[in-house]
Amino acid sequence: MITRETKVGDLLKNPIARDVLAQMVQYAGVKESVLINPFTKGLKLSAIPKFAGKAVPNIDSVIDSMIDLFNQEDGTKPLQPSNTAYWWKEAIVYQIYPRSFKDGNNDGIGDLRGIIEKLDYLHELGVTALWLSPIFDSPNDDNGYDVRDYRAIMTEFGTMKDAQELISELHKRDMRIILDIVVNHTSDEHEWFIDSVKNPSGKHGDYYIWRRGKGVLPPNNWNSFFSGPAWEKVDERDEYYLHLFSKKQPDLNWENPAVRDDVCGIIDFWREKGVDGFRLDVINYISKTSLEDGSELLGKLLQFTGIEHYFYGNRLHEYLHELRTRAFKDAFTVGETPGTGLEMNKLLTADEREELNTVFSFDHLENLGKNRFDNYRYNLNHLKRCFGKLEGAYADVAWPSIFVENHDNPRMVSKIDPREEYRDFIAKLLAVVLLTARGTVFLYQGQELGAANVDFQDLSELRDIESLNKYESLTESGVSSEAAWKTVLCGTRDHARTPMQWTNGTYAGFSEHEPWIRVGDKDNYNAEGEMQEETSVWHAYQTLIALRKAHPALVYGKFEPVEANKDDVFCYFRDDGDERFYIEINLCARNISQPRVKCKMELIYSNYMAQGDGLQPYEANVYRIDAPVFETV
Ligand code: TEU
Ligand code: CA
């Protein structure tokens, strides 16, 4: 049991405390090693305000709420290492944003027939599984992440027959399908919610999180991720409902066992249709046993108030274990878990715990102290540190998910270095990092082409509710429209949501009809052109995917970093006892020297035509090692 008298040294035995302290020192911009120096280790929790009080006002109240969080996981046993082979560990998953991938019927909106048309393309690239962003019936307030009917296909995307054809066409090609299940919330147009509003004492009355307001104020001070308060008043019930995302995305009440039964029913329904796995939207947010006010201080640090009450809720593990045993069984699961730390993630995914198979951790997406709406150049040393942690000791007990792009983030190449002359090199460098990593690889549509951010001109070109709400709330709070636009432009999720560029023709070959969102800027990065050009980003992906498939060492092998503390280089071995590889990467735009590794090596991939003495800007090389013995000099 952790109390205010517990010393920092003892606190570190608690997995959640380890995560939270690591996050705090990162925010404070100090090295993690500060936690293990004898002085800090001997500090009692109650003494921390004395030292941190000036820098962090109100830390006292934060410490109290943290103690409750830590005590959830006090006394958990150490986890067993596991290296069991599963198809999903070897999978190369390709994420499709169906609205923007390929329009099969030329109405300007991507659809299932469009995806079926492109299966041979995906097979040729070498991907082995598809993850589709939600394809269920939805009013599209958040492009399908607001589900109206979990057992029906979104009309614009096609029919159930199309979905079944897609599943069987994938299986014919020995490819798997992963559906995106959004069960933290539904659409406010879902029949459960409509009934919940009308019949507070009926079957669905308690399916959502309803509370009385505090006078004229909402039940608590939590914020929505899409701006404004997380509560909306419904006069009919004279109550507010919780919505962590948009008003049209009410949060389900997982405390109600009937909700969990219904979720299991939905999973069974899709398992029976042959679906191989599920990506679980914000799944770490489902347990909300406390609706207390969020700490203002943490709210400022994390940008959203209230998160500490639900990002790792009391009953999260219990619910996940229930879903696993009742519904998922051997279907693959990847949880989207914003904000959890590595120790929490181990508890969510270690084999023996029977919860999830793996989770997306987001620490690597932004440099320390930065967020998606900050305009800055991403430093790849941060990626190296984060992936180094994931692929090392962490992966011995929990299997990582490895990705740099998805539908919620701008394009990584642009973030690292927007200069056109480096685009090719960076795109290929990322391919090397991903495809030689110890973890399941997730690629996002267009990444295989080296897609870049879009030069949006004004708000009328954006579609995403997050961007539109953000702009409005910024300007309402007094920010000039120019500054608000700059902020939104920098982080908008629409960068990744413009149509896939198939050709350099009209609408990039996505459709013959004007698309629902504008096409990205015209450049030479399209599928048709790149498939014909041997040195293209597309071919780099194809080559590296084939390499990974041919060599299990690149999937399961140990990750052994070389000179991990040296900045700007990322060098490591992958070794499974049978085969050994060496990867050598320059993380910056200068020529640099690399660690010298003395062993016989054969270069099998490089993003440069010719090698020099040191490493050229963003150079990335993969070597096979013949002699098993090596030493660094
Ligand atoms: O995202 C969850 C989430 O945390 C994001 O909204 C986050 O604030 C940001 O976009 C991540 O960089 C998931 C889905 O991936 C997203 O598309 C949905 O809008 C959201 O849940 C609500 O379902
Ligand atoms: Ca269409």
Describe this structure as you would to a colleague:
The structure is a single chain. The chain has 22 helices and 20 strands. It has about 625 residues and is an alpha/beta fold. The protein has an 8-stranded parallel sheet with strand order 11-10-9-5-2-1-13-12. The longest helix is centred in the middle third of the chain and has 18 residues, at about 380-395. The chain is globular, with a radius of gyration of 24 Å. About 50% of the residues are buried. The protein binds 1-O-alpha-D-glucopyranosyl-D-fructose and calcium ion (CA). The site of calcium ion (CA) has 6 residues, from loops.
Task: List strands and helices in order, with pairings.
Blueprint: H1 8-11, H2 15-28, H3 38-42, H4 48-52, H5 59-71, H6 87-90, E1 92-96, H7 112-117, H8 119-125, E2 129-132, E3 136-137, E4 149-153, H9 160-172, E5 176-181, H10 191-198, E6 210-211, E7 231-234, E8 239-242, H11 257-272, E9 277-280, H12 296-302, H13 316-328, E10 332-336, H14 342-349, E11 358-360, H15 380-397, E12 401-402, H16 412-416, H17 420-435, E13 440-444, H18 465-476, H19 481-491, H20 527-532, H21 537-550, H22 553-556, E14 558-562, E15 569-575, E16 580-586, E17 597-598, E18 601-606, E19 620-625, E20 631-632
Parallel strand pairs: 1-2, 1-13, 2-5, 5-9, 9-10, 10-11, 12-13
Antiparallel strand pairs: 3-4, 6-8, 7-8, 14-15, 15-16, 16-19, 17-20, 18-19
Helix pairs in contact: 11-13, 17-21, 18-19
The structure holds 1-O-alpha-D-glucopyranosyl-D-fructose (TEU) and calcium ion (CA).
1-O-alpha-D-glucopyranosyl-D-fructose binds at residues 142, 145, 182, 225, 245, 281-282, 336, 338, 372, 407-409, 493.
